[in-house]
Inverse folding.
């Protein structure tokens, strides 16, 4: 963020700052004296003096978070392949991964990925892979929930009648077309409620990353409680926020489920 500064600021007056998205509006308000400084997006700031700059995640950690997301998807696909076939070369590893990860508590996964594993990667890369604690938590949660997602998708795929797949193959459809037009649409409709439950559980499990000193909602609640010495208010506030988040997520999932089921009903008609 960059702030536009003007020398006409009168001492001892309130320092009024406003976040704006347009240079012209910021210039007019600054010249009129209604504000003292303007917060502008970096791409609009031009050559204005830099006072303070903050990014949510550094570029290296953004890359790591993207890799964690892609890796989580790959782990899910790997688990699904291992669950629905017995001939794939990676079936042994896929089954081992799913069974092992599902047997480890999420807190242990977060601690393992966030501390010893991240430290080993940092040492092996000579300090290049020095990830922030938040990124470590994201990677740990992605690994942990990919195993559960794989089992959910496996159940959804196995729920599709085998006759439909065999009929599609008899008609000459390739495996990719069978998956795209027959398996995937029906599997998504079947597993959507279970995926919604896992998403809500994952949303609540993000509070566990506070064990890595990540300043999420839970960690900030603990910091405020330590500073204020209030017994219940910080915990009640954090619980209320989590309840609101889960209610919003549940409402969105139910709406999406209705849309998918409605589309599925039209397709069957």
């Amino acid at each position: 963020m960059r702030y536009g500064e003007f020398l006409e600021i009168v001492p001892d007056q309130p320092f009024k700052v406003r976040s704006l998205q347009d240079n012209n509006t910021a210039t007019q308000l600054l010249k009129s004296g209604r504000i003292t400084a303007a917060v502008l997006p970096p791409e609009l700031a031009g050559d204005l003096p830099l006072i303070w700059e903050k990014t949510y995640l550094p570029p290296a950690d953004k890359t790591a978070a993207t890799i964690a997301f892609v890796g989580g998807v790959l782990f899910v696909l790997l688990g699904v392949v291992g669950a629905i076939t017995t001939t794939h070369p990676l079936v042994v590893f896929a089954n081992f991964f799913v069974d092992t990860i599902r047997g480890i508590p999420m807190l242990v996964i977060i601690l393992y990925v966030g501390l010893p594993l991240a430290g080993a990667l940092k040492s092996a890369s000579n300090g290049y892979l020095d990830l922030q604690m938040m990124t470590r938590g994201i990677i740990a949660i992605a690994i942990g929930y990919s195993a559960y997602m794989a089992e959910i998708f496996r159940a959804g795929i196995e729920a599709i009648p085998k006759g439909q797949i065999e009929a599609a193959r008899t008609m000459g459809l390739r495996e990719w077309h069978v998956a795209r037009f027959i398996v995937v649409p029906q599997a998504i409709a079947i597993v959507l409620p279970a995926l919604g439950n896992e998403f809500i559980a994952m949303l609540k499990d993000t509070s566990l990353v506070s064990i890595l000193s990540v300043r999420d909602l839970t960690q900030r609640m603990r910091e405020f409680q330590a500073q204020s010495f209030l017994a219940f208010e910080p915990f009640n506030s954090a619980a209320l926020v989590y309840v609101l988040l889960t209610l919003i997520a549940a409402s969105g999932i139910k709406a999406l489920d209705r849309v998918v089921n409605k589309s599925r009903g039209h397709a069957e008609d």
